[in-house]
Amino acid sequence: MRAAVIERLGKPLVVQNVPDPECPPDGAILKVGANGICRTDWHLWTDDWAWRGLAIKPPFVLGHEFSGTVEEVGRDVRGWKKGDRVLFPMNPGEGTCEWCRSGNQHVCDSGAQLVPGVSYWGAFAEYVMVRFVDVNLVRLPESISFVDAASMACRYMAAFHGVANQAAVRGGEWVAVHGAGGGMGLSAVQIAAALGANVIAVDVSERGLAAARAVGAAVTLNGTDGNAVEAIRSITKGGAQVSVDALGIAETCCNSVLSLRKLGRHVQLGHTTRKEVGYVPLPIDVILLNELCLFGTFGMQAQRFGTMLAMCEAGRLKPAQVVSETVGLEGITAVLERMGTYDTTGIVVIDSF
Q1: What letters, b where the CB count within 10 A reaches 16 and e where it falls short, cover 87-123?
Q2: CATH number for the segment(s) 2-154+300-306+318-352
Q3: How many Å separate Cα 51 from the centre of its chain?
Q4: How far apart are the C-alpha atoms of 274 and 226, rounded to whole Å?
Q5: How far is CA 114 from CA 90, 93, 99, 119, in A?
Q6: How many CB atoms lie within 10 A of CB 43?
Q7: How many CB atoms lie within 10 A of CB 17?
Q8: Three-state DSSP class for 222?
Q9: Is 111 a residue whose pLDDT tops 90?
Q10: I need a labelling partner for 112 at 20 to 30 A (CA). Which of 88, 199, 210, 340 fits?
């Protein structure tokens, strides 16, 4: 099969023929229909997450945000067959630990060893192997294309879980999204708007802010034009009910918390980089005195996809609007390089292999 292979970290990926993956008894081989190029891919390609124990060793094939068709299933698989249209959540579980048994396989104790494109060769290729498919695979409706569904395996589903499930955004609430121009941010903007919220999008890119307006933002603020926190508190007459950090740097995280009104809910969607090494200073006294709630969000369980997919089929959610461009395997390197300077908007999807 053809794949885009990392031969040296931080260097151009090489498109070449590699052996097809083998199917495990509990797993499946998927023919990749589309794959989003995620910021996680950039973190791994640049060795930016070595500090947190997430480092890849070349040769390696990235790709964890994908949809496709079942090509082969293992002998122990009961719920899937060749030809099924599916997507695979990027944070799978093995089904037996305490978290999986309680329906929270997205935080499975063994999950880090099961992520394609992170712990083993992934979907920047024609085919990919996935494990424990009876626990993790999600059936993709015929009405949703592979390109539209690619982001649902990572950023779009994480934004949905954070906004709809964790923060439980309600109609009429103010929701501020910091770092709104990226794939995670635009997803959060669109989902919050679809739930009836008044969304304030904050970014430093006018292109990103234009994209946020296109997917439902009621107000956009350029973070370089003044104090975004003060602007949000003024517009909302005291602060947003919900605020989202979709980027993960110290400034956006702190600003998100400070944007909240009393009893507000902060949602953390963005991961940190080697600059923050996982720690960001927060205004603890503000959190305490205003009784703020902080929610972490890491993907979404397979069994919770039903509402999101139903909203897509009904036209209330339109993930296609978050996809900014499509490329082939040969175009991946240029996208990763642009990510290093935050020069991408929305989600870029690989649609040809």
Answers
A1: bbbbbbbbeebebbeeeebbbbebbeebbbbbebbbb
A2: 3.90.180.10
A3: 21
A4: 27
A5: 9, 7, 15, 6
A6: 21
A7: 10
A8: strand
A9: no
A10: 340
What is the mean predicted confidence (pLDDT) over 47-55? 91
Structure tokens at 128: 């990919």
Tokens of 40: 């996680």
The answer to whether the CB of 65 falls within 8 A of the CB of 116 is no
The predicted structure's pLDDT at residue 126: 98
**Best CA proximity match to 102, nearest among 305, 301, 306:** 301
- Give me Rg for the CA atoms of the chain: 19
Q: Break the chain into its structural domains and give their ranges.
A: 2-154+300-306+318-352, 156-296
Give φ, ψ of 280 to 5 degrees: -130, 125
Active site residues: 40, 43
Question: Are 2-154+300-306+318-352 and 156-296 in the same CATH fold?
Answer: no
Distance between terminal CA atoms of the chain?
A: 9
Query: Domain 156-296 falls in which CATH fold?
Result: Rossmann fold (3.40.50)
What pLDDT score was predicted for residue 164?
A: 98
Per the prediction, the chain carries an average pLDDT of 96
Nearest to 155 by CA among 352, 348, 353, 293: 348
pTM of the prediction? 0.96
**8 Å CB contact between 244 and 238:** no
| DSSP letters for 63-129 | --SEEEEEEEE-TT--S--TT-EEE--SS---S-SHHHHTT-GGG-TTGGGS-BTTTB--SSBSEEE
d(C-alpha 155, C-alpha 318), whole Å: 14
How many C-beta atoms surround the C-beta of residue 352 within 10 A? 11
Angstrom distance (rounded) from CA 65 to CA 41: 10
Q: In whole angstroms, what separates CA 293 from the centre of its chain?
A: 22
Rounded Cα gap, residues 209 and 177, in angstroms: 11
Residue 293's CB: how many other CB atoms inside 10 A? Answer: 14
CA 244 to chain centre: 14
